[in-house]
Amino acid sequence: MMTAIIETSGLTRSYGDICALKPLDLCVPEGEWLTVMGHSGSGKSTLLNLLGGLDRPSGGSITVRGTDLATLSEDGLARFRRDCVGIIFQQHHLIPYLTALENVMMSQYFHSVPDEAEARHALERVGLGHRLKNRPGELSGGEQQRVCIARAIINSPRLLLGDEPTGNLDHKSTTMVMELLRELRDEDRFSIVMVTHNQEVAAWGDRTIHMDDGCLVREERTKGC
Ligand code: ADP
Ligand code: MG
């Protein structure tokens, strides 16, 4: 039987008068790579933030790995973010005065205890074993995003969320990042929900949902390269 990692029912989010997410029923099977597309302002980030426990719904339910996020306290939600999800954004949000290795270790610090060997291994997995001691400003955009991926996977999340993670990258770096994500997903078996504007990026996923004005308007299977 298919197990769902994400199930939402009538999920909504409003900001005052603005209904950013209209009642959404969504089921994401364990292991799926789901792409979210849509115009700017269509509610993609709103959805992703709810899935990552960065925000709370206005209505409906949202269950991730069997936990109803609406029932969690602030501490419970923080634990959920720490233990279950890894997030990659368009901007890298790396700490400029820390090295690549230290940036990854920061994430371990908030989860449990920093472990330099493990952090080094994560950076080796993303092909940055030779850039451990470099600060973000000394890395290319693609390399910075790879540090973010190492940081996102270091605590073995079951769900990886990406909000336009390749939005600032050129074609070559985008392809490298996507290949890397596929490799890591195949090894670690996590699920992915990724927002993108790029058709090529969407082609790496298993399924694409299209959003418009806060609604899921269409979905399609993709080949999942
Ligand atoms: P997308 O990621 O698809 O570009 P968003 O989810 O960021 O869209 O935004 C959806 C709608 O909700 C937009 O109209 C946006 O202005 C509004 N919105 C998003 N976040 C907030 C917020 N924190 N406060 C007020 N309005 C917001
Ligand atoms: Mg957005």
TrEMBL record:
CDD domains: ABC_MJ0796_LolCDE_FtsE. The keyword Electron transport does not apply. It comes from the Bacteria. PROSITE patterns: ABC_TRANSPORTER_1 (PS00211), ABC_TRANSPORTER_2 (PS50893). InterPro entries: AAA+_ATPase (IPR003593), ABC_transporter-like_ATP-bd (IPR003439), ABC_transporter-like_CS (IPR017871), ABC_transpr_LolD-like (IPR015854), MacB-like_ATP-bd (IPR017911), P-loop_NTPase (IPR027417). Transmembrane segments: none annotated. One of its GO terms (molecular function) is ATP binding. The keyword Nucleotide-binding applies. Residues 6-225 form the ABC transporter domain. Keywords: ATP-binding, Nucleotide-binding, Transport. This is ABC transporter ATP-binding protein. It comes from Geomonas paludis.
